[in-house]
Design goal:
This protein is an all-alpha fold. It has ten helices and no strands.
Length: about 230
Amino acid sequence: MDNVAERATKDNLNYEDAFSKPIIKTGRWTLLIAIPLSFLPAIYLYLNYGAIPPVGRILTGWFLIASIYGSYYVIEPVSFFPVLGVSGTYMSFLAGNIGNMRLPCAAVAQEALQVEPGSNKAELVATLGIAGSIITNLIVITIAAVAGNQLFNYFPEPVINGFDFVLPGIFGSMFAMFAMKHPVYGAFALSIVLIMLGIIRVLPVYVVIPASVFLTIAFAVVSYKRKNKA
């Protein structure tokens, strides 16, 4: 047993040195570079057309967006990390479309190969799944940018209205997939959401989402510890 434990520890150290640390180093500077690059369109409009809104309106818009999506700054890294892993987290937050594209691709790839969640193999599989989704996404976005508006002219109205249900459908299927693996946790998470939305009702969305996420995490941790003690 001691030899097995030593070998596992050594493998984890080799994995950290060979994969995780270089990923963290590269991920930091790529994301830091992406931050100023995000302002290039606004800088271009200002330099070429002198178009810039008043500072008051910029701050108002920022606070409005922050009040709606501010909770996601905490929720997404915490709740998505177990599936994405270190490398997948850096790639996903750089590429975007995490909940509706990167996370499902990573989860489906892990499910298809039956890897243990949270393991090194799971992280590698998630990385490959996310990389494939990014390449596919770039191709699809390029086609959509060129011909997207023309294609929508040929779609009937029910099909166009159906796009409003794409994101809920993705999150619903993701929830069902993980809930089937751990029905107790899934039932608890669903119960918390139903209580807050159906009984309490007064809580805003930016409170309901983090509350349900962290309460479910706490419940899972407590249940796991009690099961191990038993």
